[in-house]
Amino acid sequence: MEKIEETGFGAVLVSTGEDMSKINLRIDGVRTVNSMRMLENSLQALPGVQAVQISPELKKIAVSYKPEMTGPRNFIKVIDSTGCSRRFKATIYPEGEGSGRESHRKEEIKQYFRSFLWSLIFTTPVFLTSMVFMYITGIKHGLDTKVVNMLTIGEVVRWVLSTPVQFIIGK
């Protein structure tokens, strides 16, 4: 599981200890309690299913089953094929670690967004000095002023602003 998660994919250990014959499934596409009841009835009709508990507010179904007779793949196949136009989608809903993984994912998204904002702050002036200000005569003359040999103020400004984006934020 660790190796799979290190590659960026999610992994859930289905058969652990005393919960070996119980699995939680998250159902996407459910809009009403009647839909959940229909899924409950479809799952209870499978051989080997001992009990089905639904949580409509969480869009979650807990299935207790006999592993030698059926398994999670059968449940997902039945849920995906139940209903008109197959609008339901089932995925394994990990107990306990799902909230930690979700908070980690949200924190990662926030971190990427902060990096994007810092990139935007540094890159916007680079864009303006190279694409917009070059058409404004007074500013163009100031940016084209030579510092050393052929090196201009505009090039130095763009280099100073681009370096953190390339090597710090891009890391």
From TrEMBL:
Transmembrane segments: 115-136
Record's keyword terms, sorted: Membrane, Metal-binding, Transmembrane, Transmembrane helix
Ranges where the HMA domain occurs: 21-87
Tagged with keyword tRNA-binding: no
SUPFAM superfamilies the UniProt entry points to: HMA, heavy metal-associated domain (SSF55008)
InterPro entries with a match to the protein in the record: HMA_dom, HMA_dom_sf
A Pfam family that the UniProt record links to this protein: HMA
Organism superkingdom: Eukaryota
Keyword Membrane found: yes
Sample GO molecular function, one term: metal ion binding
PANTHER family reported for this sequence: P-TYPE CATION-TRANSPORTING ATPASE
Name of the protein in its database record: HMA domain-containing protein
Organism: Gossypium stocksii
